[in-house]
């Protein structure tokens, strides 16, 4: 609630009373929230990208929003590296000024590499990969544009590509470009490369990392095979039938559980035929969890509609497609749906699964291969 120029918020044990431009009060709040989320000592001068991962960042952002009414951007830590810096940005309102192109690692050479994250463009999920790159140039992240359009007329990937082109034009980067796109970010990197090729502008290096397509775009044969496998898996197995049990309270509970499983299965199968322009569409997507702060909720809904409306087309340019050995429980083998559209792709199987490919040893292995290719191109 607001009292004069003061903001008062209650969330759990947090009670904050602060003047809107009081940087010291914001700093105290941020330090308390950070310590709670990290479960360890965090100071106002701690370099945030060094200690936060994506999951704890999202928890931190949610807790700050609940306590202050201010929702920070998922990439704020790259712009305001410490809690003290971030508190100052909250006090003067500059926390809202998040650019589309964000420098996530400074280099010493003039070359640049642009990365496109999955999800709602939180580049912390690619932190381990970026840190492990043996690349002398500067690494930038290209964030998704919040178009803010209604469900009936949503933004599509072509809109995002146009925004990326404008940003590249304004950046002063000299082509040819180098792109790495993880998950949904790979779709943007691919279509941006296509648009640049149409302009006659070169893309020296394009890598897609386990990038999916929405199941709306899968050939029916592939979708049916995947759906059948999911139905028979432990998580989606149809309840077994057997002799009628005597009426009892436990059997009623079992029947209720079976009915709930049937409903979940039918809901999951129905998703294939649901229009991304339906208001409730994002809540049917398997990855949807809900309970997000407002801006993140809008970004997630926009991204899911973009993915749902995307339809692939043939791309003749060279690229590397990194396919994880562990895959994803909600997506089919990407080679089944991409190979015919990417005739010049080099397919490289890498360790890990869709969630772990950008973390720890899997990220380092991926970075080593990307670094080797970038170095070879520089020598050529």
From TrEMBL:
InterPro entries: AB_hydrolase_fold (IPR029058), Thioesterase (IPR001031). Residues 235-259 are annotated as: Disordered. Residues 118-218 form the Thioesterase domain. Signal peptide: none annotated. It comes from the Bacteria. This is Thioesterase. It comes from Ciceribacter ferrooxidans. The lineage of its organism: Bacteria, Pseudomonadati, Pseudomonadota, Alphaproteobacteria, Hyphomicrobiales.
